[in-house]
Amino acid sequence: MKITDRLEEIKVMRDPIHSYIHIEYALLWKIIDTPEMQRLRRIHQLGGNFQVYHTAEHSRFSHSLGVYEIVRRMLSEIPSLVQEVSEQEKIVLMAASLVHDIGHGPFSHLFERITHKHHETMGKEILLDPSTGIHKLLVQYDQDLPDQIVSILERRHPKKILSQVLCSQLDADRMDYLLRDSYATGTSYGKFDLERILRTLRVEDGLLCVKESGVHSIEDYIMARYEMYWQVYLHPDAKSYDILILKLFERYEAIRSKRRIEALEAFYRPIDPRTFFKLDDYRFYTIVHDLQEDRDPYLSDLANRIMNRRLFDWVREPKQEMINSIQEKLTRRKIPLSIYTHEERLLEDMYLPYTERKKEEEIHVLDVCGKIWPLSAKSEIVKALLGMETKTCKYFYWQKISEES
């Protein structure tokens, strides 16, 4: 088998964002069918956000296909990019786009806070582990293929343009999740002109650039990301749901030395690819459903809150007097503060719409004379965004007062 082997006919899949997903190469079609890829159907794309935006039930699987489709289009519609990469490099990059999120656990990024293992690290282990289905498939085509894919995902491939297409400030990953998450949540915050961006992208001196005439569409894209973070991804009620899950694990850790619950132990064993494969949203919900009847009253209550959306109340930038008052009321009712209150601090520069801290992460603009500029030199909006003050935003969560009686 050769990496460049084509299917007898192009396969297509319907998609609400891109109309169709087109698969031409046999390797890519087989990647989609691997157990590790199919598992992504059982991982919510937006973690707990579907508890706020009721239609946000889409999966990491659909997002991965969408990222692939944008990459495929870039590799066929941007002439200077077509000239820059070989057919084999093109296929390896498309394969990387399909598997870029293969390391996500239950509820996506929330899982990382529980296991202290980043999804990119887990994805690398899955791709390189000889026992996984995806690894076995890849090495049938090329023994070095898993390493080539990982090098793109880790941004260390010798041809930097490959990583820029998939992992940069202007990449297929962000383009798809902004459009897809906006669509799925029924909001307009994440919308931008994808077609215009694709038409104005160029490769110059090995860098992915946007023509100066496309700067306004890039500004819209950057603001779409900013608005989606603060209106959707960091929605306080969605965070409240995530906090319930974190509190459940904190409670289990508090009693774990005296009592082990086998179902929860799966999250504490060394998370290798074989163990990880069994962890998805479905399994987590089965565990939590059963924990509603656990003999520990706090585990039982937290499980019930998760299953029935009994969220904590919250306030942004609370005064200390308010926090003290809430804590006193909870304490009088013998409600443990460590379980039923939580402070969350967000360092806002983590979610700034644009940064130039790393030169290789800049968005580059190609002017009419062929000179490359940083985006901030060509956009007054971006220049202003770079001057935004960095501050910490504090939220306080607690069990609703109405539930205390």
TrEMBL record:
Keywords noted in UniProt: Hydrolase
GO molecular function per UniProt: dGTPase activity
CDD domains the UniProt entry points to: HDc
GO terms, biological process: dGTP catabolic process
Highest rank taxon of the organism: Bacteria
Entry-linked Gene3D superfamilies: Hypothetical protein af1432 (1.10.3210.10)
Family matches, as SUPFAM superfamilies: HD-domain/PDEase-like
PANTHER family: DEOXYNUCLEOSIDE TRIPHOSPHATE TRIPHOSPHOHYDROLASE (PTHR11373), DEOXYNUCLEOSIDE TRIPHOSPHATE TRIPHOSPHOHYDROLASE SAMHD1 (PTHR11373:SF4)
Protein name: Phosphohydrolase
Native organism: Dubosiella newyorkensis
